[in-house]
Specification:
Layout: H1 2-10, H2 17-36, H3 41-50, H4 55-87, H5 95-117, H6 130-144, H7 153-162, H8 164-191, H9 200-203
Helix pairs in contact: 1-2, 1-5, 3-4, 4-5
Length: 207
């Protein structure tokens, strides 16, 4: 996250199309490297939830996580509009540059706090009491006890393909991805309408 934050903030300093492409390339690169080393954001967030909540409790928490993404998408355009309206040309820096500086700085701050506050395991969580840590560990242990692999991997794949819930989850995921990708093209759509460009930040989010 620190690497992502630094590159995102550095985007404010680009002076050419080539510089912008380079920043976007390395932004994707650090995400890919994060995935390789097992530390991408969403899998990491889901892992943290899974070590504290049982299987029956996870669905609600994961839905809240994804809801947070949707809500942030809806609010980010308003934040961008406020940034352009109040900070444009302040210190000789354009509004769009301030936007990248703010988002990069905020991400870095969250990453630093997360490094010190987020636990690796319930048993070493500093903001829980000793009894609460024992309870957290015991809850997860009881929730996973007795889980044994049955059959081969191919058998598991066949069972998953026959389960209607698998296809329901596939549909939900594709709808979610489609909704998120819509934001990439929304500024172009707005420009085809009789809406002034000054309104764009209010209707879209920063990419």
């Amino acid at each position: 996250m620190i690497g992502w934050a630094a590159i995102s903030a550095a985007t404010a300093g680009v002076k050419s199309y080539g510089g912008l492409v380079a920043c976007r390339f390395f932004l994707g690169f650090v995400e890919a490297v994060g995935c390789y080393f097992g530390s991408p954001f969403y899998p990491g967030a889901l892992y943290l939830l899974s070590i504290f909540y049982t299987r029956k409790e996870l669905a609600t928490r994961i839905s809240l996580l994804y809801t947070g993404q949707v809500v942030s998408t809806g609010c980010s355009g308003l934040i961008a509009a406020a940034t352009f309206a109040t900070l444009d040309k302040v210190k000789g820096i354009a509004g769009w540059q301030w936007l990248f500086i703010i988002e990069g700085s905020a991400t870095a701050l969250v990453a630093i706090f997360g490094f010190f506050l987020l636990p690796d395991d319930p048993s070493v969580t500093r903001w829980l009491t000793e009894d609460e840590r024992k309870l957290a560990v015991d809850r997860i242990r009881r929730d996973t006890v007795g889980q044994q692999e049955r059959g081969s991997t191919l058998d598991g794949l066949k069972q998953a393909c026959k389960d209607p819930k698998t296809w329901l989850f596939c549909l939900m995921q594709n709808l979610h991805i489609s909704a998120c990708s819509f934001n990439n093209f929304f500024p172009t759509i707005v420009r085809t309408m009789s809406v002034g460009l000054i309104c764009d930040p209010d209707l879209t989010r920063n990419q």
